[in-house]
Write a structure and sequence with these properties.
By secondary structure, the chain is an alpha+beta fold. It has eight helices and four strands. It binds adenosine-5'-diphosphate and magnesium ion. The site of adenosine-5'-diphosphate has 9 residues, from loops.
Length: 207
Amino acid sequence: MAKDPLYPNRRPALAADASWPGSGGLVAVTQLLQWHLCEVITRAKFNAYPYLELAICGFKQPRRAKKMAIERTFSIIKPDATKRNLTGKIISKFEDAGLRVVASKRIHMTQAQAEGFYAVHKERPFYGDLCSYMVSGPVVVQVLEGEDAIAKNREVMGATNPADAAPGTIRAEFAESIEANSVHGSDAPETAAEEIKFFFTDDEIVG
Ligand code: ADP
Ligand code: MG
């Protein structure tokens, strides 16, 4: 139905106004209903626009980059690495990856410490050899701190078996074997907390 360009909201003239004979009443009612329907749709659209825009703006907002948590993880530079004087080179790998050494000490693990620390592997066939290897020379126990430190440390370390470790990782570059694989790193927040407590008191950690 054509609208008056000067007064678009004015109800247009009805056919009945033009005094159509016969069905004029019915035509007029139909036109009136049509007009009302147009108005209702227009108003609904008008009222919905702000919400539509809000929704679109919200959708278009640039997503904030996921903020990584600052974590602490536990690390050991194992006897094969300390024997070959690789401590500095290994720490450089951690620091280059954005991890900070917030606690560190060079110790000679006791048999009891090695057995307690690796108790989770008690049932594995390599447990005895692993404990003997861990007390075969000095180790450097450390707490590393940084964004996503637990996963990042595991990434920098590389796979347990150096044959599977990605190029550039500590184990790919320095490890001698699947057992003498140069470094240990916690694998989850719970183990990280337990392992840090196993070797460090709170006042030995300086962030
Ligand atoms: P990761 O140190 O990568 O977390 P695991 O927790 O499975 O690996 O094993 C603990 C350590 O036990 C390894 O770092 C390695 O020194 C030793 N180890 C693991 N698998 C074997 C194996 N098949 N034979 C001998 N030693 C192993
Ligand atoms: Mg492990």
